[in-house]
Design goal:
Elements: H1 2-5, E1 12-15, H2 18-28, E2 32-35, H3 38-41, E3 56-59, E4 80-81, E5 88-89, H4 94-105, E6 109-115, H5 124-137, E7 139-147, E8 158-166, E9 175-177, E10 182-184, E11 208-209, H6 214-220, H7 229-237, E12 246-248, E13 264-266, E14 271-272, H8 275-281, H9 295-301, H10 305-324
Parallel strand pairs: 1-2, 3-6, 12-13
Antiparallel strand pairs: 4-5, 6-8, 7-8, 9-10, 11-14
Length: 325
């Protein structure tokens, strides 16, 4: 959706999860659709010629292994059955499978998105390896941490975007240098006017009430200065928990929307955001067909389309337009 907003022609997709693929196909009708693990897809030698002439290859390798809300290094290198496709995978190596696909297809530009946690602590070693693997694949790469709330998205969502260009095209774009090497340069700084939750507030028939259990008890003790349930619980009960459960306040930008329906609660009403509000927070169309899948899961797992459109537009203006010219 983001690339389409930016004026690109999206010709196809590769997805491992049959449920997510079904929803994608129903909404976007891709000309080329590959339902398969990327570990298998990258080995195919029967792909159509148009996949070898891409302006941009884009991917978001599943990233829960690096999320600050997850187990992080406790899960690194472990094969687990994740919800994405219900397949046994080692998630922290999927990024390198994606780079292998780029090496095979050799698009002009590669864009990859991941969580902010990739830049924190020991995970930075993966960033170094990402740079090394892009270099072996024939690309020069840089990365930028972007905040969706500054990009026209009503959500405080921070994501890392890796932007890589094929080495034979490197001299046509802006560059930056350190003492030892030159890197691609791209301006992905944004300063859009923040969009607060009041602008997404749409109470109605699809309101989702919250449970009447412990969360209700916590919510009733909230104070205006509390950002999340953890603040309330620490003050009232002296316990350190529920740090991922945030209050949605009308005069503030929404916290990060996740795939978990129990993360956000309205501060002024004891309920969770409804479908209309979630679509607005994540910049999904109000008439998007989620079929039988939870809307909060799909929106929470996705790069907000407007965020992606901003990145894609900058890549076109600063890189692709110069290359094609």
């Amino acid at each position: 959706m983001g690339y389409k907003l930016a004026g690109f022609d999206v010709i196809g997709c590769n997805e491992i999860d049959p449920r997510m693929n079904k929803v994608y196909v129903a909404n976007h009708h891709p000309r080329l659709n590959y339902l398969a693990p990327i570990q298998e897809f990258k080995l195919r030698k029967d792909l159509p010629a148009e996949l070898y002439n891409l302006d941009i290859l884009d991917g978001s390798p599943p990233c829960s292994s690096f999320s600050v809300a997850g187990n992080r290094d406790e899960d690194w290198g472990k094969e687990k059955k994740f919800r994405e496709g219900q397949a046994m995978q080692v998630l922290d190596t999927l990024f390198f499978d994606f780079i292998d696909l780029a090496k095979e297809l050799q698009p002009k530009i590669v864009i990859a998105e991941n969580v902010k946690g990739l830049l924190i602590g020991e995970a930075i070693s993966y960033v170094r390896r990402i740079y090394e693997e892009f270099d072996k694949a024939g690309y020069k790469v840089c990365h930028t941490l972007c905040n969706a709330s500054l990009m026209g998205v009503p959500q405080r969502r921070e994501r890392v975007f890796f932007t890589a260009i094929r080495k034979d095209l490197f001299d046509y774009i802006p560059q930056r240098c350190d003492l030892f090497e030159s890197y691609p340069d791209i301006d992905l700084t944004f300063n859009e006017e923040p969009i607060i939750f009041a602008d997404c507030y749409q109470p109605g028939v699809d309101d989702r009430p919250a449970s009447k259990g412990k969360m209700s008890e916590y919510w009733q003790k909230r104070k205006p200065e509390d950002a999340n349930f953890r603040d309330t619980i620490t003050r009232e009960w002296g316990q350190d928990k529920c740090f991922n459960n945030y209050y949605l306040k009308h005069d503030e930008v929404s916290p990060t929307l996740t795939s978990n329906s129990d993360v956000l609660y309205l501060f002024d009403e004891y309920r969770k955001p409804n479908q209309s509000e979630v679509c607005c927070i994540s910049t999904f169309p109000q008439d998007y067909d989620f079929m039988t899948e939870p809307y909060y899961y799909i929106c929470g797992m996705s790069v907000p389309p407007v965020m992606m459109a901003q990145v894609a537009s900058r890549v076109y203006d600063q890189w692709l337009s110069k290359i094609n010219k």
